[in-house]
Specification:
This protein is of the alpha+beta class. It has four domains: 213 residues, no CATH class; 186 residues, no CATH class; 187 residues, no CATH class; 187 residues, no CATH class. 52% of the residues lie in helices and 16% in strands. Strand 17 and strand 18 form a beta hairpin. The radius of gyration is 36 Å and the shape is extended.
Length: 829
């Protein structure tokens, strides 16, 4: 032997089972850390790409510059990019959305790829040409195509009131139709691209001001450069804007004068979840390596004693064990990294399936998958980090075993007399089942080994129960079915639907029932005064009168009213109140309106008894997803709504279809209704339900994958423990066989050990899993409280735990079947 270091390789070859168990643990931990590392890399790349798609790769903009100021900015060598545009005004599309007309100079619109993806035609190149998105054309009621003329009425205002605002109506040539980008709805401003030279046709030269998008050559000095330019050119502070989304995504430091900002993609919870999962798996694999090495070192204590006796030091023991770990990591990490690399894209797609695609600034699930695919190239930094973590945890798990070997004196190690036996006085009692009794004794032989094995199983069971509770919260399909009233939502916020329209829809052969809502918002003093409310609104509150038909009201007040109260409500003798949110300012809650059941309110001379009242987030009534407006909502029957408001139209109808309904036929009927009543839109929940159900199935598969992953690592401990028990008790087993113990009784002893592992772990894991369930429910309700015991999950975990332990125990038992009684007695351990 040329060097003591070759002992590391020789021991690996001799201890094949030990080596294989550690190798499997290394591969599994590397797979999960690689998947998480790749996923984090994909997440970062997606965040940067989508930040650029949303607001461009610009660092910021100077708003409302004169031509001279623009020239100064362009000539400044500290800027690596300057793109100019001219704001031509806005067009109000509805109460929440505006169309912004912008003339981009020298193709500077290329900075905004998300808004320039063409469906047909081309982008504008000449004056009075325009490109609009599909959704904008629908809002405008335009039915033409590329090349047609479109008349637009816009309003142009200048910042700081330097010029009076003007309104103008002009005809444009529609040169192209771009793809709708619904992420822009968040900002309430949809883009319209106008050809160069349009501004000079619409406004005198002295009224033309520019917007300059910029990037600085030095990222670190971006802030100081911008401030210096703004000071030199006397650009007001409010006329300097920062692309917060992109700056946050790429990590460029900045100071937002408006007091911070959002990075546009709150994906921190995905990172936290990935890190927690990785830590859990690394801990589980670390326990396996620790347990296996502790047993391995114990078995080879005499050899280490001899090595110490002939001059070997403690540091040489460390080298031998660490070399073994290094060799196993060298073999297992590449395999795990390859497996993790090729599965990362699929797993990350499943992990992101339960969140809205808009979180990643794409319109739908297909767009999200395409985005993930585009950013799934290898991430060397994250791959290196995953390999380092695996090696680190493997070495950390090996330290206790080496320290244990180093503490034992060479003479004691060579004699094998390090075991202390303690005898206790025991009461004599009858043994009903010797195999079970003997198994219990065996569990107490090595309490540390037993505890680690059970702990690894407890982790698996806790993960199983917690994930069962967590995934049920993510079942958006069932949640949406509980929340919504109909299978379709048909909305018209302008003209609305008449009672005749509602009756015709109700009489459709495919429709079982229809819920309908009427809505009126009074947000000025004049409007509120016209309703003559018998109460005074508090500051910041609006008056909202809402009408429900019988089906809507029945679902809305379910469990709140008796049958008699409901009939009185529908007869117009009362109302339901949704109280406004209290406003908190500087830690103090401001005065707000508050009503309770039994109060009386007056609206336009009608005295209405408050049948029920809702507070907080409960019971808010609105049209579609128009958002929330704080105020007092007076909810009445549609029979008196017209008397209170002078309006009788319904803004939204929610039909529930019969089980035998032909959806294709009904879709055509709804489309015909949309054509007859301009401004009508509809949404079918069928595709949404199917997508949500598919997403939930993916989540369940991902959860089960994690459960099996952690469970498999735990089972490695059982296999190793039982194998070691057999190996260290060869002589004992031979003596038992010699005095008459059958194969069956011997098998029962080890199977009882496995069963005890499973039972004890199921009890402890059930308790810890229930605690995890409490915290999962607390995340949903924002209150820590006792919840119902997940009996089904606990039973499943207990059964699977015991079965898995029995199966894992059977694997090493094959050695007993081939064991000779004489050879086992003569074997020197």
């Amino acid at each position: 032997m040329k060097s003591y270091r070759t002992l590391a390789w020789r021991e690996l070859c001799v201890q094949k089972v030990t080596s294989i168990l550690i190798l499997i643990a290394v591969v599994l931990s590397t797979v999960i850390t690689t998947v998480i590392g790749q996923s984090l890399g994909i997440l970062n790349a997606m965040k940067e790409q989508q930040a650029a798609a949303l607001a461009g790769k610009k660092y910021g903009s100077f708003v409302q510059l004169s031509e001279e100021q623009l020239a100064e900015v362009k000539s400044d060598s500290r800027f690596s990019y300057v793109g100019a545009a001219i704001d031509l005004g806005t067009i109000q599309l509805n109460s929440q959305l505006k169309l912004s007309l912008v003339e981009y100079l020298n193709h500077s619109y290329e900075m905004y790829p998300a808004f320039t993806e063409l469906l047909e035609g081309r982008l504008p190149e000449h004056p009075m040409e325009i490109a609009l998105s599909e959704d904008v054309l629908r809002f405008l009621g335009f039915q033409g195509k590329s090349g047609d003329r479109i008349s637009l009425t816009a309003s142009k205002s200048w910042r700081h009131g330097i010029l009076p605002a003007v309104d103008y109506t002009e005809e444009f040539t529609l040169t192209g139709i771009t793809k709708s980008n619904y992420v822009a709805y968040t900002y309430g401003m949809l883009p319209g691209i106008v050809g160069e030279g349009t501004a000079s046709r619409l406004f005198p030269s002295e009224q033309i001001y520019y917007v300059a998008d910029f990037c600085t050559a030095d990222k670190k000095t971006m802030q100081s450069t911008v401030e210096d330019v703004a000071e030199n050119l006397q650009i007001p502070e409010l006329d300097v804007t920062y692309n917060i989304v992109y700056l946050s995504a790429v990590g460029i430091p900045y100071e937002n004068p408006e007091g911070g900002g959002e990075d546009g993609m709150d994906v921190s919870f995905l990172r936290i979840a990935g890190i927690m999962v990785g830590g859990l798996v690394l801990l589980a694999s670390g326990l396996v390596i620790y347990n296996v090495l502790k047993i391995s070192v114990s078995k080879r204590m005499k050899e280490y004693g001899v090595l110490r006796a002939i001059g070997g030091g403690k540091d040489q023991l460390w080298v031998i064990v660490f070399l073994q770990i290094l060799l196993l990591c060298a073999a297992g990490i590449p395999v795990g990294m390859l497996a993790g690399y090729f599965s990362a894209e699929s797993i990350f797609s499943m992990a992101t399936s339960f969140v809205s695609p808009e979180l990643f600034m794409v319109n739908d699930t297909a767009g999200l998958k395409e985005l993930i695919r585009e950013n799934s190239a290898g991430k060397p930094l994250f791959l290196a980090a995953s390999a380092f973590l695996t090696v680190f945890f493997a070495f950390a798990a090996a330290v206790p075993a080496v320290r244990y070997a180093g503490k034992v004196a060479p003479t004691v190690a060579m004699s094998g007399g390090n075991t202390k036996i303690r005898r206790r006085n025991r009461r004599t009692k009858r043994i009903k089942n010797f195999a079970a009794y003997y198994a219990r004794l065996n569990l107490r032989r090595s309490p540390g080994r037993t505890a680690i094995t059970i702990l690894s199983l407890v982790m698996s069971i806790s993960v199983f129960i917690a994930l069962q509770s967590f995934t049920s919260l993510l079942n958006a399909a069932s949640l949406m079915e509980e929340m919504r009233l109909g299978d379709y939502s048909i909305i018209n916020e302008t003209a609305g639907f008449t009672e005749k329209d509602l009756d015709e829809l109700s009489q459709n052969d495919a429709v079982e029932s229809v819920a309908a809502i009427q809505f009126s918002l009074y947000d000025t003093e004049e409007l509120v005064a016209g309703m003559s409310p018998g109460f005074e609104l508090k500051p910041g509150e609006t008056l909202q009168v809402v009408g429900f038909n019988e089906m809507y009201m029945d679902a809305y007040t379910e469990g709140k009213l008796s049958e008699e109260e409901f009939q009185r409500l529908m007869a117009g003798e009362g109302c339901v109140i949704k109280n406004p949110f209290p406003v908190v300012y500087e830690g103090e809650e401001l005065e707000h309106s508050e009503f309770a059941a039994g109060d009386t309110v007056s609206i336009k001379g009608w005295e209405l008894l408050v049948m029920a009242a809702f507070d907080g987030t409960d019971g808010y009534a609105g049209i579609g997803n128009q958002g929330f407006t704080n105020g007092v909502q007076v909810i009445v029957s549609d029979r008196i709504y017209s008397e209170l408001t002078g309006k009788s139209e319904y803004q939204e109808m929610l039909p529930v279809l019969k089980e035998t309904a032909d959806r294709n036929l009904f879709d055509r009927a709804v489309e015909e209704l949309c054509r007859e009543i301009p401004g009508t839109t509809y949404l079918s929940y069928e595709d949404t339900d199917r997508q949500l159900a598919e997403s939930y199935e993916q989540i369940r598969l991902l959860a089960w994958g994690l459960i099996l992953f952690v469970g498999l690592i735990g089972l490695l401990n059982i296999v190793n423990t039982v194998y070691t028990n057999i190996h260290t008790r060869v002589t004992e087993i031979g003596m038992q066989r010699a005095i008459g113990m059958s194969h069956g009784a011997l098998y029962q002893t080890f199977l009882w050990e496995g069963a005890y592992y499973g039972i004890i772990a199921a009890v402890i894991g059930g308790v810890t899993g229930y605690i995890c369930t409490i915290f999962v429910e607390a995340a949903r309700t924002d209150t820590i409280q006792l919840v119902s015991i997940p009996v089904v999950s606990l039973a499943e975990a207990a059964v699977m735990s015991v079965l898995a332990c029995l199966i894992a125990t059977c694997i090493p038992l094959r050695r007993i079947a081939n064991m000779s009684i004489v050879d086992s007695i003569e074997t020197v351990e």
